[in-house]
Structures are given as C-alpha cells and as structure tokens.
Amino acid sequence: MIILGIESSCDETACAVMQDDTTLLSHVVDSQITIHRQYGGVVPEIASRRHIESIYPVVDAALKESSLSLADVDLLAVTAGPGLIGALLIGLNFTKAISLVKDIPFVGVDHMAGHLLSVFLGENKPEFPFVAIVASGGHSSLFYAKSYTEFELLGRTRDDAAGEAFDKVAKILGLPYPGGPEISLQAQNGDRDKIKFPRSWLEKGSFDFSFSGLKTSVANYVHKTEERTPEFLADVCASFQEAVVDVLSAKAVQAAQFKKCQQVVLAGGVAANPRLRDLLGKRCRSAGLNIAMPPLDYCTDNGAMICIAGYHQYRQNGPSSLDLDVYSRSPLIMQG
Length: 336
Ligand SMILES: Nc1ncnc2c1ncn2[C@@H]1O[C@H](COP(=O)(O)OP(=O)(O)OP(=O)(O)O)[C@@H](O)[C@H]1O
Ligand SMILES: [Mg+2]
Fold this sequence. Notes:
It is built from eleven helices and ten strands. By secondary structure, the protein is an alpha/beta fold. It folds into two domains: 2-115 and 299-334, Nucleotidyltransferase, domain 5; 124-293, ATPase, nucleotide binding domain (Nucleotidyltransferase, domain 5, 2-Layer Sandwich), CATH 3.30.420.40. Adenosine-5'-triphosphate binds at residues 9-10, 83, 111, 115, 136-139, 163, 166-167, 178-181, 184, 268-270, 272-273, 300-301. Adenosine-5'-triphosphate is lined by residues 9-10, 83, 111, 115, 136-139, 163, 166-167, 178-181, 184, 268-270, 272-273, 300-301.
C-alpha cells in the first residue's frame, strides 16, 4: 500500500510517501521557523497563510522525490488535530479535495499518535506494549501503548509542555525561537549542577507534569542578576535543561515499572534533546528496560509519522468520511 501523509498542524508543512509502514520513499518539510522567529513564537494567522502557499509545492515535491504520482497512491493520511485550527484546515481540506477528485480514501489521524509512532521510522523498533513519553511544543504526555491504535493516557502536563518551557525560557534569556535547540546548544558548555532549579514531582505516584514553576524560577533567577556572560548563560541553560530531563526521564522509567513493561519509547520535538536521550537511555539501561527513539529528523513534525499512524488506523477502522472536522485538543490527551 502506498500512503501519502500530510502534516500542517503548526508551523511545518510536511509531506511524506511510504510503502506500508516500513519503507519511506520520500519526506519533505517546509519549516516556517524563520518566519515566526521575528515574533518570538508561532503567529497562527501567518502560519495558515504560509501553509496555503506551500502545501501544493511540498506535496508535489514529495511525490516527485518518490518517483510516484497520485495515480499510485492508495491512501491519503492527514493530521486532523490537535493543533492550530486554521493551519489544520489547510491540510485536511487539501487532502479531502484530492480524495474526492482522485477517488483515493483518506484518514484523519491524531498528531500525538503520529509522534508516538514516529519511533517505527528508526532501526530499533519497539515491541508492544510499551510506555511512551511524548514531549513536544504543545504536550508532555505519558502513554501506555498497547497496539498501533490503542493508547492509554497515564499522565500529561498540567500547565506548560516541556517544549513550551524550553521556548519560554529561551525568550527570558534572549535566545531565538524555537528555544529547545538553542538551549541544548548553550547547555553543552554549561554546568548542569550549578543552579538547583526546582523539580516538580507532584503527588506520589502521579505521572502528570508541571513545568511552569520551573520557568518562573528561571525567570526570577535571571532577573535577580545583571550577569550575562557566556558562562552564566550556559550554566542557566544546562541547569534548566537538567531539571526538565530529570523529571521526564524519571517518570518515564517509573511508568514502565508501574505497567510492568520492558520497553520505553521517547518521541516528540523534545526527543531531539541530546541530554534527554542520554539520561533516559542510561536510566532505562540501569533499570533493565529497552529504550527506542525516533531518528533526530523525525522527532519534530513530519509527514512520515502521519503515514504510519494513518496506515494502521485505516487497517483498523477504514477510511474517514468527508464530513470529518479538525480539532484543537487531542482526545488522546483528554481521556482519563
Ligand atoms: N534539542 C531540543 N531540545 C529541547 N527541545 C527541543 C529540541 N529541539 C526541538 N525542541 C522543541 O520541540 C518543540 C517542537 O516540537 P514539535 O514540532 O513536535 O512540537 P509541536 O508540533 O509544535 O507541538 P505538538 O506536537 O505538541 O502539537 C519546540 O518546543 C522546540 O523547542
Ligand atoms: Mg508536533
């Protein structure tokens, strides 16, 4: 089965072509980062306009790169939510139009399911069931994945998502958007034990997260001092990053032990963070757990993860109908 996957939930217009869930034939991403950077974050209306301009060229480029045409495509998969409503509508309506005109079935998929399944794009593929931590710009969630289509929510963020915390702390430090890559770069030269920023563990046994207190603590620390040397910046970044990855990795290991499963998966944009990959890997190994992560290119938004989620959803539930609508919040996150 040839699947064409389209993603437009936030600030990336992306498309990929896959054969089944195993062979990636092409993968194109048009990132809007440089457009939104001047505003310090994503401006929804600008994002929608840019998706309108780039969706056709991106899909066309993905098809060309795969040496296939729409006549070869058996299934269209598209992100239906969660995300920015205006941005999602571009991808969904573009997909519906192709579906109607070319008579190709389509499925609307959940972006979080896409992130969670992006791990299957790597060499080291996990076996079900597994505990997955999805840490991205809008979410920090722990799931117990029973199959390609059954996910139980174990915990979620109560305020800022992990990626959002990176982005906001970067802003406080005068670093450009998106903050995650900038902070992890600065952190390489810093001392992660220099500043003891608070860890929010919440109630005993809770798999929820909270990062807004940490963000406020960094803001207070930075505003209390005039110092802005490269060493100061590097130490704040390293210490803040450590506070985030400490909680994320500890809770992921605890969740796997709680569910008595052997496998942990890390996904979402923050999964590109080298310190998180390193620390979670170490903690999993010392707890006797296997760890699997997507390749770096597939941590942030992409069409390939939408192909995989769409392929399995189609096999399980068949196609979506033309009256499918977009949604801003994920039913996967609202359960429980
Ligand atoms: N090296 C890194 N370290 C930490 N965070 C990172 C790194 N690289 C990217 N990020 C963060 O990942 C986020 C982007 O990831 P992603 O594209 O998955 O999020 P999103 O699609 O905006 O949100 P969601 O998937 O929740 O809708 C940003 O917040 C960014 O700062
Ligand atoms: Mg995302």
